[in-house]
Amino acid sequence: MNDKFEPLIIGFTCNWCSYRAADSAGLGRLKYPPNIRLIRLMCSGRIDTTFVLQAFANGADAVLISGCHPGDCHYVEQNYKAQSRFLLMRRLIAQMGIEPQRLQLLWASAAEGTIFAAEVTRMVEEIRKLGPLNWKSSQQLTVNSKQLAAAEVAA
Amino acid sequence: MVSVGNHPNINLMAYSEVTQVSGYVGNFTVTVRQKASYVDKEKCTGCGVCQDKCPKKVIDQAYEAGLGHRKAIYKPFPQAVPKFPVLDRENCTFFQKGTCKACEKFCESNAIDFKQQDEFVTFPVGNIVLATGFDPFDPRRIAQYGYGRLANVFTSMEFERLSSAGGPTGGKIVLRDGVTAPQSVGIIHCVGSRDKHYNNYCSVICCMQSLKLAHLIKEKTGATVYNFYTDMRTAFKDYDEFYQRVLSEGTLFVRGRVAEVTDAARLPGEEGKLIIQAEDTLIGKQRRVPVDMVVLSTALEPRHDAKEVGQRFGISGSAAGWFIERHPKLDPVATMTEGVFIAGCAQGPKDIPASVAQGAAAAARVVGKINQKEIAVEPIRASIDKDRCSACRICNNQCPFKAISYIPEKNGQRAYSEVNPALCQGCGTCVAACPSGAIAGTVFSSQQIMAQLNGLMLLNVNGASVEEKVPA
Amino acid sequence: MSKPKFAMYWAAACGGCEIAVLNTHEKILDVDANFDVVFWPVAMDAKYKDVEAMEDKSILLTLFNGAIRNDENEHIAHLLRRKSQILVAFGACATQGGIPGLANLSNTKSIIDTAFSTISTDNPFDTLPMTRFDAPEGELTIPTLYPAVKSLNQVVPVDYYMPGCPPESHQIAAVIDLVVQVLQGKAQLPPTGAVIGAGNSSVCEECTRTRNEKKIVKFARIQDFKPDPNICLLEQGILCCGSATRSGCGAVCPKAAVPCVGCYGATEDSPDHGARLLNAVASVIDSRDPNEVEKILDGIPDPAGMFYRFGMPGSLLRASKAAWSSEQ
Questions:
Q1: Does B330 touch chain A (CB under 8 A)?
Q2: Which of residues 118-147 of A touch B (CB under 8 A)?
Q3: Using CA atoms, how far apart are residues B321 and B318, in angstroms rounded to an integer?
Q4: For residue C117, what pLDDT band results from cuts at 50, 70 and 90?
Q5: Does C292 lie in the same domain as C220?
Q6: How far, in Å, CA of C322 to CA of C264, rounded?
Q7: Are strands B16-24 and B86-87 parallel, antiparallel or unpaired?
Q8: What average pLDDT does the segment B291-311 reach?
Q9: Which chains have 3+ CB pairs within 8 A of B?
Q10: Looking at the domain assignment, is residue C162 inside a domain?
Q11: How far apart are CA B125 and CA B22, in angstroms?
């Protein structure tokens, strides 16, 4: 069934480096798989665990957090905060049974379109091998609530 | 420079360092350390007699590039502005041995003050322009080029002093012995730049500088000149025309990186010469070129203290260390900190016209800001809901621009933190960090990002699970 | 005119919520004076069929505590929803899953194994629970365990949420007062879906400890050292959940030198309590070196359990893969 599996990856990029890296990949006509959907933030320091968990809970197979190289942040040091959050998030999702590879961190400067494209390509392939995540929504966790409701009406 | 020095609205603080910056655009407070120069600026007339009478000679590493001398009390160069000399404490006989005071004796206006101390001055400013320049690359780091080991290897800065009419040789281009004119000279480009071992970037000025040096050598000595270059980069007005002129003067160009400069002769004709070993990539051969003199066109590097300076002014630097502009194309003068501008090589290697243009642009931006009377800020800002803020102080150290301040409990009003919108640059880090969700960010609010996220989830990669709505 | 009807039920819960209600002291008499208590299994005898026989919407107020752990819990939730005008998710378990929600980190089989066959269990015949058994007297059934614990609002619509493990008695008393005033026409109910009996800031607001800028270089637990009694626990490296947890309890734990465990749940508009806390804690780690950060994070041995101690089922991920992939 994995033949047709196309992973859905949500990528969070910062306005100054990684979003521009994606842009420069485009300008350079570099190809990378369309499986990644980018959301632009002003800074990788804006990354909120809520967004990452929402992505996983609602069907993303992987999440990429991407920002400026350490020491290169347009906001001086905020990418280090993204880094700490990322490291803790990865521990959390591992406990939840999500493979740590499904959450990745990528530093890419505005000039590194090639690196961005190559890394996204690599990540898509890695997730393709890993297979779908298919996180269960609340409805799927209910065993037989509909049957129960029907039984109540009958009673 | 003189007109800057004389301008009534310009307060020139030479021999000084900014130690602290706080506040925000229109309202910065700057503390400057004015280093003790031991010369009372109120009294000094700039006559220069102290310099003449000072008995202590010091090798001048700065202006003379190590080729000439200055005194222990000195002006960096004759036309320096301001005109006041500085006493170099490390080399002053009085400070080191306790006697001398020749300068004090001869000074007619009693301007020498050996008791002077460093002074700290604090004053408000509205805008800041950083034009802190660059450091020249030290070619000793490339041992195979022999600088510092082989006498007749010069840096471009040394060469500038040699060819200057006011320099130590009076403008004569000679070898290190001070008398012999070179018969042949090799100029090596890209020393420390475009080289992954040192700096990846192009230092911009070296091609044109090397062409100028080649032209001067030709003109003054008639020597054979070889240029070893990586690529000739003669962009901009009249530059390529100058290249053509230097070519027509008979300067030789070898395209290829120099492997080594050595004095070990192997072939006839190499004895007593410096041999430049390089690959000529246009003919695909190794070449050994014996010359009398080698000039290294050294790279431009960020100032050694660029990182600390950047932190002090709340602006960021690239991995290499150049200050980062707000936008590489659309805003190359401003920085991410409102009210702090950058100009010249502090932002990246550039030549004089570009530095002048950027400096003028920065000045114009500041004048614009002053004339506006009001500051227009980007709408992307964070704000704290005072009622929901629990004053946990998690956010207090999240802001590198010091926009968040803590307001302690006062008169029954409970404690809270607040964002100064003039200082906030809108990165959103505090919005994400706020544990109680009391910080909201405009334009990139959590609700907006969640909506984007949910929107992206509706589409699956295999095809359209959402019907495309085509306008009728 | 007869008094309005009142019900209280416990699903997957410890009973602490009931104790907290009793802990309102004489205020409990107001409940009796103003309400006709029709169903409260802990306090009085009543059968499910009595409730089933009531008219729909005949109970004015139902306080439902406990999480939804099995089909019986869910059945009663549906039943009480049908019979009640106002259904209140009462306590941490009903609002977000609570302590039983930690089961969502484990596979159902491993939970049963732990309970019935580990070395500390005296189970000589390896008896395992069965949901159905044919006895000579007829078929016997017990409720079926769900693969994952749910909060009340994940099975039925809920009118109000009253967080806390348990809700603080003074907050319960205030809510009883409010309801009585509403009955007397002196006050109005808050909008549906509101959190009642709690504040709108975080626990730090009520905490008396001195707070400074936070820079954490090491996480520790209260048994590891003697924390300064006057300074914020988080600053001292103790993982206190207070900054991300809704106020209303009066910061009783941190005031008593025990870190907040987050029982009041997330603050207003925060969809995920643990995520907020994780962001905040990670942001104040004082290191830029990823290896050093990892070393500091080793001081939080169980992030999921720590950040979601009371809120796993109510969080965005709801349950670990181990739980939702449990074989039924």
A1: no
A2: none
A3: 5
A4: confident
A5: yes
A6: 26
A7: unpaired
A8: 94
A9: A, C
A10: yes
A11: 10
- Residue A133's closest chain C neighbor by CA? C321
Check whether residue C228 and residue C169 sit in a common domain.
no
Which residues constitute the domain of residue C91? 5-100+149-183
pLDDT, mean over chain A: 85
- Joined together, the tokens standing for residue C232 give 């914020």
> Does a structural domain hold residue B463?
no
DSSP string, B213-238: HHHHHHHHH--EEEEEES-----STT
C-alpha Rg value of chain A to the nearest Å:
18
- For residue B463, give the DSSP letter: B
Torsion angle of the four alpha carbons B176, B179, B180, B182, in this order, in degrees rounded to the nearest 10: 60
The secondary structure of residue B332, as a DSSP letter, is S
Instruction: Enumerate the β-bridge partners of residue B294.
Output: B153, B186
| Nearest residue in B to A36, CA atom | B461
Burial of B231 (0-12, 13-18, 19+ CB in 10 A): exposed
SS3 C270: coil
CA pseudo-torsion sign A81, A83, A88, A90: positive
Structure tokens given for C123: 């189970």
Nearest-Å Rg of the Cα atoms of chain B is: 29
Structural domain boundaries enclosing B221: 127-376
Q: What pTM was computed for the model? A: 0.75
R_g of chain C computed on alpha carbons: 22
Partner residues linked to C7 by β-bridges: C39, C62
Residue C325, pLDDT score: 83
Mean pLDDT of B98-118: 93
Closest by CA position to B43, among listed B100, B118, B108, B114 = B108
pLDDT digits (tens, 9 = 90+) for B133-170: 999 999 999 999 999 999 999 999 999 999 999 899 99
DSSP string, A25-44: HHHTT----TTEEEEEES-G
Residue B470 lies in a domain: no
Q: B375 vs chain A: nearest CA distance in angstroms?
A: 20
Q: Which fold has domain A2-154?
A: Rossmann fold (3.40.50)
Instruction: State how far the Cα of C53 lies from the Cα of B353, in Å rounded to an integer.
Output: 92
pLDDT digits over A64-85, tens only?
999 998 877 888 889 999 999 9
CB-based burial, B10-39: b 16+ in 10 Å, e otherwise: eeeeeeeebeebebbbbebebebbbbbbbb
Residue listed under structure tokens 């499910």: C48
Whether the link from the prior residue into B82 is cis, omega within 30° of 0, is yes
Which tokens hold the place of B239? 């530059």
Determine the average pLDDT of the residues in B384-395. 94
CA distance A9 to A36: 5
- Which residues of chain C make contact with B391, given a CB cutoff of 8 A? 204-205, 211
A153 CA: distance to closest CA in chain B (Å): 35
CB distance C70 to C77 below 8 Å? no
Final residue of a structural domain among B376, B404, B425: B376
**A18 pLDDT higher than 60:** yes
**Helical ranges in chain C per DSSP H:** 16-22, 27-34, 48-53, 71-83, 91-96, 108-117, 169-183, 252-255, 273-283, 290-297, 303-307, 321-324
Residue with tokens 């808050």: C190
Asked if residue B94 and residue B134 are part of one domain, the reply reads: no
Reported ipTM exceeds the 0.90 cut: yes
Query: C131: part of which helix (H) or strand (E)?
Result: none
Number of domains in chain C: 3
- 3-class DSSP state for residue B67? coil
Nearest CA in chain A to C307: A92
Which residues of chain C are within 8 Å of residue B435 when distances are taken between CB atoms? 202, 243-244, 267, 276-277, 279-280
Please state the length of chain B.
472
Is residue C307 a part of any domain in this protein?
A: no
In B39-89, which ranges are E strands? 57-60, 68-71, 73-74, 86-87
- Using CA atoms, how far apart are residues B53 and B90, in angstroms rounded to an integer? 18
| Residue recorded with tokens 């170099």 | B88
